Amino acid sequence: MEPIHEGGSSRADQSEDHGDERRSSLSKVAAGRPAPIEVLDHIKINNTKETPRSTIKSVIHSSNHEEIKFTRRNLKEVEEKLKVAFVQFYQKLRLLKSYSFLNVLAFSKILKKYDKITSRNASKPYMKMVDNSYLGSSDELMKLIQRVEATFIKHFANVALVAIIRARNIFQEEGYKDYMNSVFPLYSLFGFIVLHMTMYAIDIYYWKRYRVNYAFIFGFKQGTELDYRQVLFVGFSIGAFALLCVLGNLDMQADPRTKSYQALTELLPLFLLGALLLVLVLPFNILYRSSRFFFLTCLFHFLAAPLYKVTLPDFFLGDQLTSQVQALRSIQFYICHYVWGDFKQRQNTCGRSEVYNIFIYVVAVIPYLSRLLQERSLEQGYNGVKYFLTILAVCLRTAYGFDKNKNHKFILKVLAGSASVLAAVFCTYWDFVYDWGLLNRTSKNRWLRDKLLVSHKRVYFIAMILNVVLRFAWLQTVLDFEIKFLHTQTVLVVVACLEIIRRGIWNFFRLENEHLNNVGKYRAFKSVPLPFSYDEDDDKDD
């Protein structure tokens, strides 16, 4: 009798047979299959070249089978989408550049921390390795950014944006310091002029609004005084021409086709200044000749003091020039830069000249000295003390800026600070009490004056606070506040602009006080017109 086998054994044998057959078939397939690298030879890629039509269709999400009509609307839509795509791509490239910079900075911080904890000096070789790596040395990202900028400028940007982008590229290069030290002071002169004329136009507007008879006070001929719109027109015209010169200068420098005309590029601010001076002395009856000649007459009387009798327009102009010391120094820089300096290469060598440094003192002192010589009476003599203290403070602050000896610098810092504080306090007191007629405790308007043209009293207190704050803007030059994101020339320009704004505020309240004094003392008119004509020749005939 045969032994009985378990049923599962036969199934197992069958499965083993099937497994062997499957493995043999797979081995046959594997034997006939090419190597993995050879698979690429059996793959076909349909690489159809895209035409402009297919590209536009893909941008505006149009089907390939759908006929497209190239209307202005379609093209405008494509242009806007491409512009947005370029901007987004450019922003991502800038982010990638920032990310790369942050990684290098992180390596530097980590290695410094490591050196500090372990008391080792391992950061230099490691940072050298990082700088030589692809992360620190590759310039492919910058090249791609420049390509995107060039493409965007060529197809989408307007003239102003082109100039701004090129100017930013210039400022990122090593020539940034040369530009700020050589070119920026030249154009800042026009900024001072425009700001001062803007403040004067604002003063005229409020003088008219509050019925201050500024035409009589200044002695303008009837009908020749300029309106605030005309003053703004002149100021903004100067600003527009200066801005065009700045943009032209930057564009000509950045454009490879005009970069060779460097001499012409650097002469643009000189041409503009020469044109302004020519218009100022133009004898023809155009461009407000009476106002130009009135200004030149007052300027001559101011410079020739004390040879001429001083009137209010003369010393009023002198006060304006005391707030334009930085502008006068810019004119001095024009002479040095274009006569003795190498303006073609933007080499600022003026600071190395002893004569130039001496004239920095002289130019700063001239407005205050001329204003001091205008004071003749005893009361005006007290006002002269104000200008004498200011001359002393300006000279000490200038000397402090030049001296590099640490021992002398500390002494000059103390002297300059003390003289400046004394001058600022005295000048502020004179402004409030004598020029503005305020701080009268017995007045019905406490701490102000009896008559006020501005109904809101807080305006006067705000003006006094601003006068004090802006008058102490010179503290930056003595205390050496470090503003890392601003260049030294930029800080000087900002301080000078604050002084011009302070002078504009001072002008309004100074003439308001003068007007009220004239009205109170019946000096509102030079002569009273009679209701009849009187001719001496008629009496002689009779």
Automatic annotation (TrEMBL):
<dbReference type="Pfam" id="PF03124">
    <property type="entry name" value="EXS"/>
</dbReference>
<keyword id="KW-0472">Membrane</keyword>
<dbReference type="InterPro" id="IPR004331">
    <property type="entry name" value="SPX_dom"/>
</dbReference>
<feature type="transmembrane region" description="Helical">
    <location>
        <begin position="459"/>
        <end position="479"/>
    </location>
</feature>
<dbReference type="GO" id="GO:0005802">
    <property type="term" value="C:trans-Golgi network"/>
</dbReference>
<dbReference type="GO" id="GO:0016036">
    <property type="term" value="P:cellular response to phosphate starvation"/>
</dbReference>
<dbReference type="GO" id="GO:0006817">
    <property type="term" value="P:phosphate ion transport"/>
</dbReference>
<feature type="transmembrane region" description="Helical">
    <location>
        <begin position="183"/>
        <end position="207"/>
    </location>
</feature>
<keyword id="KW-1133">Transmembrane helix</keyword>
<feature type="transmembrane region" description="Helical">
    <location>
        <begin position="228"/>
        <end position="250"/>
    </location>
</feature>
<feature type="transmembrane region" description="Helical">
    <location>
        <begin position="414"/>
        <end position="438"/>
    </location>
</feature>
<comment type="similarity">
    <text>Belongs to the SYG1 (TC 2.A.94) family.</text>
</comment>
<feature type="transmembrane region" description="Helical">
    <location>
        <begin position="270"/>
        <end position="288"/>
    </location>
</feature>
<dbReference type="InterPro" id="IPR004342">
    <property type="entry name" value="EXS_C"/>
</dbReference>
<feature type="transmembrane region" description="Helical">
    <location>
        <begin position="385"/>
        <end position="402"/>
    </location>
</feature>
<feature type="domain" description="SPX">
    <location>
        <begin position="1"/>
        <end position="128"/>
    </location>
</feature>
<dbReference type="GO" id="GO:0005886">
    <property type="term" value="C:plasma membrane"/>
</dbReference>
<feature type="domain" description="EXS">
    <location>
        <begin position="344"/>
        <end position="542"/>
    </location>
</feature>
<dbReference type="GO" id="GO:0000822">
    <property type="term" value="F:inositol hexakisphosphate binding"/>
</dbReference>
<keyword id="KW-0812">Transmembrane</keyword>
<feature type="compositionally biased region" description="Basic and acidic residues">
    <location>
        <begin position="13"/>
        <end position="24"/>
    </location>
</feature>
<protein>
    <recommendedName>
        <fullName>EXS domain-containing protein</fullName>
    </recommendedName>
</protein>
<dbReference type="Pfam" id="PF03105">
    <property type="entry name" value="SPX"/>
</dbReference>
<feature type="transmembrane region" description="Helical">
    <location>
        <begin position="293"/>
        <end position="311"/>
    </location>
</feature>
<feature type="transmembrane region" description="Helical">
    <location>
        <begin position="355"/>
        <end position="373"/>
    </location>
</feature>
<feature type="region of interest" description="Disordered">
    <location>
        <begin position="1"/>
        <end position="31"/>
    </location>
</feature>
